[in-house]
Amino acid sequence: MSDQFKEFVNTQQEAINLVQREKLKESLILLEEAKKKFPERLDRIGHWKAGIFMLEGNRAEAISELNEVLDRGLWWNPEILINDEELEPLKEAQDFHDIINRCTMMYNKNKKSACAHLQVEGNSQSNTAIYCLHWKASNAKDFAFQWDTSEILSNYLIGFVQSSQLYSFNSYVWDEREVVEEDVRKMHLEFKKTYDLEGKDSLLSGVSQGGKAAVELLLNNNPLGCKGFIAFVPSFTDSDDIENILQDHVKENVRGCLITGDNDPFYDQTVTVANLLNAKGVPCKLIVNKGMGHALPDDFAEQLQEAVDFILND
């Protein structure tokens, strides 16, 4: 994980801790400083600050904070603000309606021009190429930061695919399966234009919603001809989609690995999917991290290598 991204994550957690200890002023000071360090994340920081102002009962400052974000060119999916319980007292105010209208205009404008994107990192001489699908409500750049270790980048050539399905400012999702396949196909072609993939073992990976999408895409028709899938904390809500795919498609020479934590809200369904895959003839390794929630494991690089070894050394 890059130092800058790690600092932002740590700042977020520190702000949460301060709020939980009812040190609201200290959290506001911390986040105001963060706005200078991370101007590209002003939408998130400004949203957090607005929520804290509401905890103080300071509606005027909350509105001012939201407007500052919009004035500086960032915005939100309007549903994010509408569904925020901390902002509930603002919802009848004209100033808040004006903010929602501005957000709606920016969201609709940017949704029309949203397109898939590819960011490539790692070792072009590696024998293993991995296509990676980011978290829900994330992007390729932020996701790549989480893979930014020498152990990973020296061992693999990695294509981080960014969805074309806009969620909010610089934030994308994998909601529609047909669009997922189209995006991944297009970015695969972009990948091949620059890098020689001949003779490389290709794998499809993802985290959370991206992990679920990766599994479904590979099992459905495996458009990239990947040898297997690696899904970290996949957000399976049930096993019905996987079961339907397996009924319609016979899988040959495909293996996979699901990596989760026993405190992940999707843990039970992930175990069910792993058992289903094995029962249907798709070898699937299940790695369970004790005490881990919906997050990446601390020994991420080691578990990634374990998953790659399972798929390629059959």
Describe the secondary structure blueprint for this structure.
Blueprint: H1 3-20, H2 24-37, H3 42-55, H4 59-71, H5 78-82, H6 94-113, E1 117-122, E2 128-133, H7 140-146, H8 150-153, E3 157-162, E4 165-168, E5 171-173, H9 177-194, E6 201-207, H10 209-220, E7 228-232, H11 240-248, E8 255-261, H12 267-279, E9 284-289, H13 300-312
Parallel strand pairs: 2-3, 2-6, 6-7, 7-8, 8-9
Antiparallel strand pairs: 1-3, 4-5
Helix pairs in contact: 1-2, 2-3, 3-4, 4-6, 10-11
Description:
It contains 13 helices and nine strands. The protein has helices spanning 3-20, 24-37, 42-55, 59-71, 78-82, 94-113, 140-146, 150-153, 177-194, 209-220, 240-248, 267-279, 300-312; strands spanning 117-122, 128-133, 157-162, 165-168, 171-173, 201-207, 228-232, 255-261, 284-289. The strands form two sheets. Strands 1-3-2-6-7-8-9 form a seven-stranded mixed beta sheet, with helices on both faces. It has a two-stranded antiparallel sheet with strand order 4-5. Helix 3 runs antiparallel to helix 4.
CATH architecture of the largest domain: 3-Layer(aba) Sandwich
> How far apart are the first and last residues' alpha carbons, in Å?
30 Å
Annotated CATH topology of the largest domain: Rossmann fold
Strand order across the largest sheet: 1-3-2-6-7-8-9
Counting DSSP E segments of at least 2 residues, the number of strands comes to 9
* Mean residue pLDDT: 95
Tally of DSSP helical segments: 13
Order of helices and strands: HHHHHHEEHHEEEHEHEHEHEH
Highest-level CATH class of the largest domain? Alpha Beta
Counting helices, strands and paired strands, the structural category is: alpha/beta
